[in-house]
Amino acid sequence: MSLLEIENLSLAIGGTPILKEVELSVAPGEVMGLVGESGSGKSMTALTIMQLLPHAARASGRVSFDGIDILAATEDQMCALRGDDIGMVFQEPMTALNPVKTIGEQIAEGIRWHTKASRAEAEDRARKMLDRVGLPEAKFPLSRYPHELSGGQRQRVVIAIACALKPKLLIADEPTTALDVVLQAQILDLLRGLVSENRMGLLLISHDLAVVTEMADRITILRHGEVMEAGDTARTLSEQLNPYTRQLALASMHVPARAKAHATGQGKPLLEVEGVTRDYSGRRTSLFQRPTPIRAVDDVSLSLAPGQSVALVGRSGCGKSTLARMILALDKSTSGTIRFRGETITGRSEAELKPARRDMQVVFQDPYGSFDPRQKVEKLVAEPLHVLEKKPTPAERREMVAHTLHEVGLGVSDMDKYPHEFSGGQRQRLSIARAIITRPKLVVADEPVSALDVSIRAQILDLFAELNQRLGIAYLFITHDLTVARAITDEVLVMHDGRIVERGKTSDVLDHPQSEAAKALVAAAPDLHRAIARRMQEQG
Amino acid sequence: MTAYLLKRLAIAIATLILASMVVFAVLEILPGDPARLMLGLNASAEQVELLRNQMGLNAPLVLRYLHWVGGLLSLDFGRSYTYSVPVIDLVRERMAVSLPLALIALALSTIIAIPVGLYSASRRGRAGDTIAMGAAQLGVAVPNFWFALMLIYLFAVWLRLVPAGGFPGWGAGVWPALKSLLLPAVALALPQAAILARVARSALIEVLNEDYIRTARAKGLPYRAVLWRHALRNAMIPVLTILGLQFAFLLAGTIIIENVFYLPGLGRLVFQAITQRDLVVVESIVMLLVVAVIAVNLVVDVSYAIVDPRLRGRQ
CB under 8 Å to A161, separation ≥6 — which residues? Predict the structure, then answer.
């Protein structure tokens, strides 16, 4: 007997079809993985179950939960279900909690609403729930506010809210996508524990095939609002009967074809970082005491040869982005020197930095946030050209933009479009075009593919590899995703608490990590091959 | 929390000192010798010189500024030359009218604006929202003295519910005094309420799109409860900012409204003082208004910290 049964569900928002005849079921104590790329309708399926769809949405078909017809339920009935029998966890923990209420209030609120418990009773239960999700009282009293917690801790609070009343079904929509791999492993562990304790059904929504394989008993693959394939996780992924399933699996394990690594360690290094430290002023504890500084980057040294591709990996908050900002001369180091092409860039004025800026560019994580929506592609991609010694004429500029767009696989006609006319992957191509238009020697890429779907991610990784080969651009890849590091870099630096704790050839470090930090990263990184093998073994 | 409050207090005091300098300097720069103005055109040069010495006008600038500030601090604002009484007595008498008027208007505008904003935001794009926001648009566009005239016509001339103007004084009893302040307060409050309602609506709409609203809905709270418990408090932050800024406009508005309703308040006093070049009075009242605005903004800063724990810092 299924807990949740979705039959023939179709959904349209303002006339646009979103879901087409979706079938899905979750049994008590079962983990159902719902996989698909962005825009495939995963989240809309979840919101249909919760009946939290936008006003213009029209659903047809049948959704029954524990014998209740959800699509026909009144708002009062739904309010009774939400938070009591069905809990939901969302993707973005940083914004999922009300900033002006304590975590205790936010957990106790649902308990009081549904059980009519007294404040003291509800707070008592909230306390127990926080202990269960790994936030002990000594460090996390109920009176904490969300802004005093990190992303991973906030996600634990969200899970505590969703599971406070031991729901029969938990819907987790990309619960770990915004977290680093180590936190991801911890949160998945927590979810697994809650499922087995309470025989709770879990609908786990993710774009990450490896995560779903590790977690789910059964899997449903969604594409453009239609179910492509559904069934037992291990069998579905090992047999790969549906071509789309195969495509997804291949894409998530994709390694770009790269010729032998560029001359590593030969000649003069392109970038040298020596003993760089960055302190941020800490919070003042008393009016009369100097605040103790927070050390974000601690005595880091590294060097990068021309054409070399290096990964800087570490957990969120380890200082990797701060280091990158200093290399790009966007932030000043507290001490230490950075040399680029043999010239010192630390402590230089903006005018003196101009030649260096020409030869180093950056690609950011979010392809949506890094473009001014009111400017056309030509202007956006041509932006770095102002650092050139000689200002190109408008005709030359157009020519250069056209050439660069061609190099990243876009057309000349794309020049007169606006950013919103492009998909996420195309936008990341635009950021790469913007980065390579000045023919830089070094591109710093800060999580350049972590916001992209697996198939798009594979294409972008290919593009990075190709540009590395063809133009000899050196890369510094900042990432917490080890598959990316493995796919595209020669060397890897592991950063932990502001220090580089391990360095070496990428395959060596990732296959035989030595430091605690590297071991933790490798152990936590989801791996599709490993996950499928483990499932097959378990099932015999 | 204390650090935040101390910082805000320091900023308020610094602003106050700066403002006092500006007020003093502007009146210094203004053409016209106060002594000559007081004595009239026929006074001899010796008489003027004598008075200048008496009034301390010949002392160095810095000394005169310090003397003036010292006077303000000990509530000695000088003497009004048109009324021939200490300014402090005038101010005290007029404040009894203006302060209640401003406070009633402020309270009224908030009481009107917040529910209208809530109503509009929760019915965004529907008929109720369109009507409410249309009315708000009208409220922003129409000048308050015209409102005042219409209110007088409707409630005083036609319905004869309240007096058309004048003020019986608090001695005549609380109710008659309040009654005569009611129409002016409404006339002052309506345009303010209109602006505030629009701000409240857009702040609420923004907050309602936040992720934590969805989290609250997923807890099983009905829409209305989410609106009151989660959205309103977060939306209060921009509303408070506008409320603080509006207070200055409210004070400026009293000058017109008190004239329309013939109320013996500070607004009319300052208006008369300006036309009669009674600079001592003008100076004192302007300074008083500055103090009021800065004090209200300090209150706003404190309420920020009450509403938003992120401003309080770690305990």
Answer: A83, A87, A106, A107, A110, B215, B219
A335-340/A4-13 β-pairing: unpaired
- Answer whether A360's CB lies under 8 Å from A442's CB: yes
- pLDDT-based confidence at residue A264 (cuts at 50, 70, 90): low
Q: What CA–CA distance (Å, rounded) separates B150 from A97? A: 48
CA dihedral B177, B178, B184, B189 (to 10 degrees): 160
B224 contacts chain A (CB < 8 A): no
Q: Which domains does chain A possess?
A: 28-50+85-252 (3.40.50.300), 271-281+289-533 (3.40.50.300)
Residue A131 tokens read as: 């202990």
Using an 8 Å CB-CB cutoff, list chain B residues near A284: 3
Per domain, the residue ranges of chain B are 2-73, 87-311
Interface ipTM > 0.85: no
Q: Tell me how far apart the alpha carbons of residues A444 and B32 are, in angstroms, rounded to a whole number.
A: 67
Q: For A72-109, what is each residue's pLDDT tens digit?
A: 999 999 999 999 999 999 888 889 999 999 999 999 99
Nearest to B240 by CA among B188, B296, B186: B296
Q: Which is higher by pLDDT, A162 or B255?
A: A162
pTM score of the predicted model: 0.83
* Proportion of chain A above pLDDT 90, given as a percent: 56
* A96 → closest Cβ in B215, B220, B309: B215
Q: How far does A512 lie from chain B, in Å, by closest CA?
A: 41
Residue A400 has pLDDT above 80, yes or no: yes
3-class SS string, A184-246: HHHHHHHHHHHHHHHCCEEEEEECCHHHHHHHCCEEEEEECCEEEEEEEHHHHHHHCCCHHHH
- Written as one letter, the residue type at B160 is R
How does pLDDT run across B289-306, given as a tens digit for each residue?
Answer: 899 889 988 999 889 888
CA-based nearest distance B213→chain A, Å: 8
Nearest CA to CA, how far is B299 from chain A (Å)?
19
CATH architecture, domain defined by B87-311: Orthogonal Bundle (1.10)
